[in-house]
Amino acid sequence: GKVAEAIRQWVELRQQGDGSVALSPAGSGLDPELLEFPEQALACARREAGRLGDITEGLLSRAMEMFDASDRSEIERIIAADREINLRNRAIHQYLSEARRHISEQALERELDRTLHYSSTMENIGDIVSHDLSRLAIKRLERNVSFSAEGQQEIQQIHQAVMALLRAEINGFVGGRPVTPGQVRQMAGEIRALCEQSVDNHRRRLSEHRLSSQGTSSIHQDTVRDLMHVAGLLEHRPVSSAAT
Q: What are the tens digits of pLDDT across the range 41-66?
C-alpha cells in the first residue's frame, strides 16, 4: 500500500506535465513480493537508489546554470527534478522499512542502513539545490547582478570538485566498492580549501571596492557555503561492509 501510494503520487506528477520525471516510475522496481527475501529486496532498493543518484547528479550538474538564467522559469525547470528525487527517496524508505522486518543478519542490516543513508543524502543534496542555491540564483536575477570573472571561476571550480566527489560516491555505491574514508576526507578537504580561498579572495576584492563583487557579496559567500554543505553531506556517511 505504501509503495502504491508513492506510485500514485508519481502518476499525479506525470498528469501535471512535469517533463523532468524519468520514464521509469518511482518505486517501480520495488517489488513487494520480494519483501520476505531480504537479499532480493535489498537488490531492488539498491537499483532504485541508483536511479535516484543519477537524477541527483543531473540536478547538481545543472546547478550553476541557474546563475546564468535570464528568467525565473529557467530556474524552475531545472529544480523540477527535485520533486522526483523526494518521491523516489520516500518510496525507498517505505519499502526498506517493510523489508527490515524480515532481516536477521547484521551484514544485511548494515547494507539496508547504507542504502537508506545514501538515499537520504541524495534527497538532501536535491533540497540544497532546489531550496538554497535556487533562492540565491533568483536573488541574483532580481538584483540584475553578476559574479566577477574571478568569482565565477572560483565557484565553478568548487562546483566541479563537488561533482567529482558526488560521482565517486555514486560509482562506489553502484559498484559496491566505495571510495575509502581517507579518499573521501582528502577530496572533501580539498573542497574546503577551495571554499576558504574563494571567500578570502572575495573579501580582498571587496576591499578593492570592485562593484561586481559588492553587488554579489552575500550571494557569492552563500553559494560557496551551500556547495561546501553538499561536500559535507557526502563526507559523512556510514562505513559499509565493503569498506571494512
A: 999 999 999 999 999 999 999 999 99
State how far the Cα of 185 lies from the Cα of 222, in Å rounded to an integer: 22
This prediction has a pTM of 0.83
Q: Please check whether residue 187 is in contact with residue 164, taking contact to mean a CB–CB distance below 8 angstroms.
A: yes
Q: What is the 3-state secondary structure (H, E, C) of the chain?
A: CHHHHHHHHHHHHHHCCCCCCCCCCCCCCCCHHHCCCHHHHHHHHHHHHHHHHHHHHHHHHCHHHHHHCCCHHHHHHHHCHHHHHHHHHHHHHHHHHHHHHHCCCHHHHHHHHHHHHHHHHHHHHHHHHHHHHHHHHHHHHHHCCCCCHHHHHHHHHHHHHHHHHHHHHHHHHHHCCCCCHHHHHHHHHHHHHHHHHHHHHHHHHHHCCCHHHHHCHHHHHHHHHHHHHHHHHHHCCCCCCCCC
Contacts of residues 22-28 at CB distance under 8 Å and 24 or more positions apart, as own/partner, are 22/51, 22/55, 22/84, 24/51, 26/84, 26/87, 26/88, 26/91, 27/3, 27/87, 27/88, 27/91, 27/92, 27/95
CB distance 81 to 150 below 8 Å:
no
Residue 141, pLDDT above cutoff 80: yes
- Rounded Cα gap, residues 221 and 196, in angstroms: 10
d(CA 121, CA 25) in angstroms, rounded, equals 20
Type of residue at 138: I
